[in-house]
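Inverse folding, one chain.
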């Protein structure tokens, strides 16, 4: 009887060691996954805020000068695609984690509308020697609407973002930034950002669509 008991003990110990190693490996992989996505999240969120801020500055310049240049259109396009890339990456992640899924009008739809508005207008001088388009009151009203909408989105970011303080011209990290770079993906703030930006777009859907009708 001694040998079977000894064999059983050895087998049990081996099973416990294998299970412990497997559990530890999963823990390391999970921790690495969390830290990788959390660091990316905080960097991408900082860029997202900066893109909204720069777009706000450009829109205000257009209103003040009553003109539109190709450079301004390109800057707005870059900022739109920063938003689109952020949304696509983190909306997909939120869906995979069963934390958010939007099947209606989204902030990405609003970004494409903004893109279309300015691309159509700047096309008026493409193929000519003009460097800027003079804007009439009708188009300026569209820009004023987009500027106000962009400001609403900035305010939304300011209310729900964590790890940063948003000023009029900059994004300043807080003490919480470092901690969130390690486990921020487990928090709810980034999912709430997606939800709230989508809500801003949904509430203004008809007004946005009328800009390109």
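Residues assigned per position:
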């Amino acid at each position: 009887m001694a040998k079977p008991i000894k064999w059983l003990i050895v087998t049990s110990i081996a099973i416990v060691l294998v299970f412990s190693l497997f559990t530890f490996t999963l823990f390391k992989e999970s921790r690495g996954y969390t830290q990788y996505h959390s660091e990316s999240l905080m960097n991408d969120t900082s860029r997202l805020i900066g893109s909204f801020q720069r777009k706000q500055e450009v829109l205000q310049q257009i209103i003040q000068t009553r003109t539109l240049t190709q450079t301004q259109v390109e800057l707005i396009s870059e900022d739109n695609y920063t938003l689109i890339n952020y949304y696509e990456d983190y909306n997909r992640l939120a869906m995979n984690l069963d934390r958010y899924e939007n099947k209606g009008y989204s902030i990405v739809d609003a970004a494409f509308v903004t893109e279309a508005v300015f691309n159509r207008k700047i096309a008026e001088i493409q193929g000519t020697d003009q460097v800027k388009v003079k804007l009439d009151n009708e188009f300026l009203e569209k820009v004023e609407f987009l500027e106000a909408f962009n400001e609403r989105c900035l305010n939304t970011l300011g209310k729900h973002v964590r790890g940063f303080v948003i000023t009029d011209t900059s994004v300043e990290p807080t003490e919480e930034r470092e901690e969130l770079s390690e486990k921020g993906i487990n928090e709810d703030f980034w999912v709430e950002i997606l939800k709230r930006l989508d809500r801003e777009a949904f509430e203004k859907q008809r007004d946005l669509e009328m800009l390109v009708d």
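Residues 16-31 have pLDDT under 50 and may be disordered. DSSP finds seven helices and four strands in the chain.
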